[in-house]
Amino acid sequence: MTTAKEPKNTSNGQVGKIPKRKLLKSDLQRMRIPRRFWPRMKKPLDDFEDKKILIKYYNEICDKVRKGESLILSGPNDIGKTTFACEIIKEARRYGYYGFFIRAYDYIDACFLKEMYNREMTIPERTKEVDVLILDDLGKELGGSDRAIGMLASLIKYRVEECKTTIITTNISTPKEFIVDYGVSFQRSMRGVYHWINFEGPSYRDKMARELKKEYEDDALEAGKEVQRAEK
Ligand SMILES: Nc1ncnc2c1ncn2[C@@H]1O[C@H](COP(=O)(O)OP(=O)(O)OP(=O)(O)O)[C@@H](O)[C@H]1O
Ligand SMILES: [Mg+2]
Question: What is the pTM assigned to this prediction?
Answer without folding.
Answer: 0.86
